[in-house]
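2024-03-11 09:14:02 INFO worker-7 job=invfold-0412 stage=load source=structure_tokens
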């Protein structure tokens, strides 16, 4: 499975948990877990909301495709 997002890494870097994120965005923790494992992807609006909550640039949540 190709890694597209870095949500799990950014959560760890900011000291937050998937449960915390699920509560903040009003989603099931299982959905957030799937985002963290790249099984499914959040839409762009949700990605922007996550970036805002984690106080990071949205680009930090994405894997660099040029590597």
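2024-03-11 09:14:09 INFO worker-7 stage=emit residues=67
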């Amino acid at each position: 499975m190709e890694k597209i997002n870095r949500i799990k890494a950014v959560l760890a870097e900011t000291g937050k948990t998937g449960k915390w994120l699920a509560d903040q965005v009003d989603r099931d923790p299982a959905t957030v877990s799937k985002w963290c494992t790249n099984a499914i992807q959040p839409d762009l609006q949700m990605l922007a909301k996550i970036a805002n909550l984690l106080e990071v640039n949205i680009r930090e949540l994405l894997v660099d495709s040029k590597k």
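2024-03-11 09:14:09 INFO worker-7 stage=report msg="The mean pLDDT is 96."
2024-03-11 09:14:10 INFO worker-7 job finished
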